[in-house]
């Protein structure tokens, strides 16, 4: 299904509330709170989960498996699966407690879920049973609900054509011969996405890149185990290698800042990227994308300056953590025609993207930045939704803009 795209707008009225009113320094600091007491009701072959009380279905599943008294190899695998599940639930626990989760911790939980699903599938093969572990996805969804409202997940479809063809080969083979014991729901969904040329998120790209660990099984023939089939389902050599490169590129150009000068205490980075798709999921609009045009970002930057908001900085989007002594003294919009370029490392971002530099006098905040507690900027504010743009309309709009630029040249 193609998701609708809404463009977010603000007015030029200085008296209304539609504006970016704070820029947050973000990235979850290390959590130092004590763990909960061990759960005396369950021991998974020497491992006692701490957070299973959040998931009765996980508790029942592992109680059942432990009571089976499986072999020594299966015991070790079950212990590892229990630890992975507990790590996911730990992330959920702290998300609930802090009413916040960082994108980094959410992404890690997503990858852990893939590992958990794969490991449970291997265990099921060994013991000759089949267990539904889809309930763990509910906990990932719960964690996701604590991401900041303006957390974005870009989507990309510039993976090689060969990756799509590899996925199609896997799907054709499975249609004829069946998946058998091969693959998880995650892998099958991925194959269909790649085969159809659908945009995939940074989370998905990270999963593809992590599939590198299965390369040793990639050269087998189709039908000889699951290695070759699942390797192709994830895009094969072309897909996995692209994912590794793309992940590095995405993370390099994430909305993050760099310490430009330790002596002068200057940090600089991207504040908003023009025309980047931002995934949203809420009750009013359902799953959709939003984006900020270059014109809207310009209006935001102008309104920010007129309101004298250069010292409006908080931590982690927490209104109770407004900080003094962090001031934006430099602000620029990328405009290639005027020779105003993005920061090094952000080459290729669209014209109209917003960058800024901040002078950090606040000693506590500066030390936190140097330790890596805060790694990026994230803007927050109130915006108006414009009528959604379909994917087809968006594509036609881009073609029209390109043709207009050719005519003008």
Short recap of the structure:
The protein has twelve helices and 14 strands.
| C-alpha geometry | globular
The class by helix and strand makeup works out as alpha+beta
- For the report, how would you describe the main beta sheet? 4 strands, mixed
Termini separation comes to 37 Å
Order of helices and strands: EEHHHHEHHEHHHEEEEHEEEEHEEH
Explained architecture:
Among the domains are: 169 residues, no CATH class; 97 residues, no CATH class. By secondary structure, it is α+β, with helices and mostly antiparallel strands. The chain is built from 12 helices and 14 strands. A 4-stranded mixed beta sheet has the order 7-8-1-14, with no helix packed on it. The chain has a 4-stranded mixed beta sheet with strand order 10-9-2-13, with helices on one face. A 4-stranded antiparallel beta sheet has the order 5-6-12-11.
Give keywords.
17% strand, alpha+beta, 409 residues, 43% helix, globular, four-stranded mixed sheet
Question: How does the SSE layout of this entry go?
Answer:
Blueprint: E1 5-9, E2 20-26, H1 56-67, H2 72-98, H3 103-127, H4 135-144, E3 155-156, H5 161-177, H6 185-195, E4 200-201, H7 202-210, H8 227-233, H9 236-252, E5 257-261, E6 266-272, E7 278-282, E8 286-291, H10 294-306, E9 313-315, E10 318-323, E11 326-333, E12 354-360, H11 363-371, E13 376-381, E14 384-385, H12 391-408
Parallel strand pairs: 1-8, 2-9
Antiparallel strand pairs: 1-14, 2-13, 3-4, 5-6, 6-12, 7-8, 9-10, 11-12
Helix pairs in contact: 1-2, 2-3, 2-4, 3-4, 3-7, 5-6, 5-8, 5-9, 7-9
């Amino acid at each position: 299904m193609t998701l609708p795209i809404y463009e977010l707008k603000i007015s030029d009225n200085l008296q209304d509330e539609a504006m970016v009113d704070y820029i947050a320094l973000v990235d979850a600091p290390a959590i130092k709170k004590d763990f909960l007491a061990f759960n005396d009701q369950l021991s998974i072959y020497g491992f006692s989960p701490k957070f299973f009380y959040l998931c009765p279905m996980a508790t029942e599943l592992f109680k059942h498996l432990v009571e089976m008294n499986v072999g020594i190899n299966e015991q070790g695998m079950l212990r590892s699966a229990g630890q992975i599940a507990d790590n996911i639930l730990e992330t959920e626990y702290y998300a609930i407690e802090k009413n916040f989760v960082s994108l980094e911790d959410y992404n890690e939980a997503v990858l852990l879920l893939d590992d958990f699903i794969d490991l449970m599938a291997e265990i099921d093969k060994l013991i000759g049973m089949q267990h539904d572990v889809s309930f763990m996805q509910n906990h990932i969804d719960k964690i996701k609900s604590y991401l900041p409202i303006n957390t974005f997940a870009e989507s990309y479809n510039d993976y090689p054509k060969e990756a799509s063809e590899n996925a199609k080969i896997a799907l054709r083979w499975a249609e004829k011969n069946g998946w058998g014991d091969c693959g998880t729901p995650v892998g099958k969904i991925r194959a269909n996405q790649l085969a159809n040329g659908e945009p995939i998120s940074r989370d998905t790209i990270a999963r593809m890149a992590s599939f590198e660990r299965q390369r040793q099984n990639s050269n087998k023939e189709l039908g000889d185990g699951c290695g070759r089939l699942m390797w192709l389902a994830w895009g094969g050599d072309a897909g996995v290698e692209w994912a590794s490169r793309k992940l590095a590129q995405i993370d390099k150009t994430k909305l993050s800042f760099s310490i430009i000068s330790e002596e002068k205490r200057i940090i600089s980075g991207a504040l908003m990227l023009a025309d980047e798709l931002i995934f949203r999921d809420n009750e009013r609009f359902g799953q959709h994308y939003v984006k900020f045009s270059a014109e809207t970002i310009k209006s935001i930057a102008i309104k920010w300056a007129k309101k004298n908001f250069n010292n409006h900085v908080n931590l982690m989007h927490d209104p109770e953590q407004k900080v003094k002594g962090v001031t934006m003294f430099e602000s620029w919009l990328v405009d290639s025609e005027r020779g105003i370029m993005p920061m090094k490392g952000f080459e290729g971002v669209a014209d109209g993207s917003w960058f800024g530099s901040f002078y950090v006098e606040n000693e506590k905040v500066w030390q936190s930045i140097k330790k890596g507690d805060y790694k990026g900027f994230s803007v927050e504010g109130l915006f108006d939704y414009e009528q959604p743009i379909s994917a087809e309309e968006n594509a036609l709009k881009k073609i029209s803009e390109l043709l207009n630029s050719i005519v003008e040249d």
